[in-house]
Design brief:
- The protein is mainly alpha-helical and 310 residues long.
- It is built from 16 helices and six strands.
- The protein has a three-stranded antiparallel beta sheet, with helices on one face.
- A hairpin with a 2-residue loop joins strand 5 and strand 6.
- Helix 12 runs parallel beside helix 14 and helix 13 runs antiparallel to helix 14.
- The termini are far apart.
- The C terminus is likely disordered.
């Protein structure tokens, strides 16, 4: 027997003596068992704990909101809105109404340049909101399109209002008298159709020759645009009136439901009694209008009639 055979036989005996099953508890990583790694982990943990303790003892810094002037590094921003020839006289008549919200509410510096016939605005150190200049430009731009100052000022107070413009010929290519009749159908006699669409969709409409401008929220503009497109395509005004009546009814119902839920939540918070919608019968519930179903019956039953008094 050679030396190699003796070594192989000894290795076989050692392998036979090893257990056939492996205990998972004895499997530990060599990295975890390393003393140097463990010492380094303990050092890092102690440093993190010390940093946490220091942060707990120090108040977090609070920074004030930067003004529009400071956000630009002390540089002023400018906007210039050209005034069309047909809006020069209305601008002069309504200048005070336009100037008041721009100066007092948005804190902007405004002037009218008579040489270029344009309204110029710029920010100052008193301007707080960075979007004030753009809001002011949208406000003046809406007035230049033909909207009243009372309607255009809503752009300063609400964030979900937009202006959309389109040509009558974008809907259907019309020329001559056909174009004039389409514009007349949109306006209606004495503006009745336009007012009906405005009141039903809660928008504002300006008809400037063959161009139409809409002011309102996204959903309301879509409803008004669909009605105007139907009129341009030749739909009878009576049909559009019926559609607008249905639209106004749905919008009023939606508004009433919203107001009802607000009042219902306030009533529940104030009284602690659960109020339900009519039709949802509950033994201990209160109706929408605040009349208790069961309580009212008990009260009526407990009151003696006139015959019993006699």
């Amino acid at each position: 027997m050679t030396a190699a055979d003796v070594q192989d036989s000894s290795m076989d005996m050692m392998m036979d003596n090893l257990p056939q099953t492996v205990d998972p508890t004895t499997l530990t990583s060599r990295i975890i068992q390393s003393d140097s790694i463990q010492r380094e982990d303990r050092t890092n943990d102690s440093d993190n704990d010390a940093d946490d303790m220091q942060m707990d003892g120090v108040d977090q810094p609070t920074f004030q909101k930067l003004s529009a002037h400071a956000a630009r590094g002390g540089k002023a921003e400018y906007r210039r809105i050209r005034c069309p020839a047909h809006r020069y006289t209305p601008l002069r008549e309504n200048w005070e109404q336009l100037l008041t919200p721009l100066v007092e509410y948005l804190k902007l510096q405004v002037r009218f340049n008579t040489r270029t016939r344009s309204v110029e605005m710029k920010t100052s150190r008193h301007t707080l909101d960075t979007s004030s200049l753009q809001k002011g430009a949208d406000f003046i731009g809406a007035f230049m399109l033909g909207f009243e100052p009372q309607d255009a000022v809503a752009l300063l107070r609400l964030d979900d209002l937009y202006i959309e413009s389109f040509q009558v010929t974008d809907v259907k290519i019309l020329r001559g008298d056909h174009l004039s009749r389409a514009i007349g159908r949109v306006a209606g006699q004495d503006g009745k159709t336009r007012f009906a669409i405005e009141n039903a969709t809660r928008t504002r409409i300006v008809i400037a020759d063959s161009r139409i401008h809409l002011l309102g929220s996204y959903g309301n503009i879509r409803l008004a645009r669909n009605a105007i497109c139907d009129l341009i395509l030749g739909a009878p005004p009576g049909k559009v009136y019926n559609n607008m009546r249905n639209v106004a009814k749905r919008m009023n119902e939606r508004y009433l439901v919203l107001q009802y839920h607000r009042g219902l939540n306030a009533y529940n918070n104030m009284t602690g009694i659960k109020a339900v919608v009519p039709g949802e019968h509950s033994h201990h519930s209160v109706a929408v209008y605040g009349v208790p179903y069961n309580t009212e019956k008990r009260a009526l039953a407990s009151v003696p009639s006139n015959k019993e008094h006699r």
